[in-house]
Amino acid sequence: MTLPLPDDLLKVPHRRDVPFARLTTLGVGGLCRWLFEPTTEAEAQAFVRACAREGLPWRVLGGGSNLVVLGDVDTPVLRLALPKTVHREGTRLTAPASHGHIALAEAAAKEGLSGLEFASGIPGSLGGALRMNAGAYGREWVDVLARYRFLTPEGELVDKAPEPGEFRYRWSFLTGGRVVLSATAQLAEGDPTTIRKQVDDYREKRGTSQPLSKRNAGCIFKNPPGQSAGRLIDQAGLKGLRVGDAEVSREHANFLVNHGHATAGEFAELMDQVRSRVLEVQGVDLEPEVEVWRG
Ligand code: EPU
What is the spatial distance between Cα 275 and Cα 28, in angstroms, rounded to a whole number? Predict the structure, then answer.
C-alpha cells in the first residue's frame, strides 16, 4: 500500500504488525500491518474521513469471532477501542460497539433486564453482533434494537432508530464502509432469577451442542431458508473431515475447529470442500456466515 499514510490518520492510536492469530477466535492468520484503535468516536470519525479523502481502502474488525484472514493485510484495519461503559436509561441499555457481546448480555441480566438472554453465548463485539444481526434461539438483535449510531463511508455520524430493510437474518446494511459506534437495546424489567436461569440454560444448551472447548468461529455457514446448514453438512457425511489441523466438528457440523496448529489456508480450504460437497450431495449452495479476508 502507498506509504506514508497521511498525518491526520497517523494521529489515531495505532499498532503495527499485530498477528491476526491474536485478533481472531480461530487463532490463525497473517499480520495486521496497520491496526487503528480509536478510543473516541471523534478519532474513529477522523480515521474514516482521512481514508475517504485519500481514497484509501480499509477494513473494520470487531471481536474477530467470525473471521478467517489469509496472509498479511496491508490495508488499514479499524478496531474500535471505545471505553466499555454501559449506560442505563429506564429499561434501555446503551453500549459502545467495542463492548463484549457476552459481557453486555451479562450486564443486562445483572440489571434485571430481560431481552438479551439470547445473546449470552454469542461471542464477539456488540458492533459485530449488530453488523450481522446475530441471533440464537429464535431471537436476533433487531428484535431488541431501539437506536444505533454509525459512521457512513464518508465519516458522517448517524444516530437513528432501525427501519425496515436494514436488518435481516444474519445480515444488515452496516457493511461497505459503515462502522457501528454504539447500540441501544430496548429491554423489559424481569425477574433476575428467571433471567439468570434462562441465560444459564442457553449456555448449557450451547455447551452440549457446540464445540466450545476448541477454538472456533461459531457457525461457518448461514442456515438456508427453512433448513439447517449443520444438518445438511452432517447428512453429507462430513463430520470429522479434516484439512491439516482444521476439522469439521464432530459435535456440530456447522462448526470448524482448530486442533491446535491449523492455518488460515487450511480453514479456507476446508470451507471450500464442505461447500462443494454439500452442493454435490444435497444440491444446496451454502452461503458463508464467516468472512474470509485475503491479504
Ligand atoms: N443438526 C444435525 N447435525 C449437526 C448439527 C445440527 O443434525 O451436526 C440438527 C440439529 O439436531 C437440529 C438442527 O440441525 O435439529 C438445528 O441445529 P441447532 O439447534 O444446533 O441450530 P443451528 O440452526 O445449527 C443456529 C444458529 C447458531 C445458534 C443456534 C442456537 C445459524 C447459522 N446458527 O444453529 O448460531 O447458536 O441456532 O440458537 O443461524 C452462529 O451464528 O455462529 C451460531 C452458532
Answer: 21
pLDDT of 2 above 90:
no
231, 250, 278, 286: residue to mutate for ligand 1 pocket, most atoms within 8 A of CB:
231
Give yes or no for residue 290 CB within 6 A of ligand 1: no
CATH architecture of 87-194: 2-Layer Sandwich (3.30)
**CATH number belonging to the domain at 213-282, selected among 3.90.78.10, 3.90.170.10, 3.30.9.10, 3.40.50.720:** 3.90.78.10
b/e map 225-258, b = 16+ CB within 10 Å? eeeebbebbbebebbebebeebbbbebbbbbbbb
**109-168 confidence digits (pLDDT tens):** 999 999 999 999 999 999 999 999 999 999 999 999 999 999 999 999 999 999 999 999
Q: How confident is the model over 154-189, as pLDDT tens digits?
A: 999 999 999 999 999 999 999 999 999 999 999 999
Give the distance, in angstroms, between the CA of residue 30 and the centroid of all CA atoms in the same chain.
19
Q: Calculate how far, in angstroms, residue 230's C-alpha sits from the geometric centre of ligand 1.
A: 6
Q: Which fold has domain 9-78?
A: 3.30.43
* CA 229 to ligand 1: nearest atom: 24
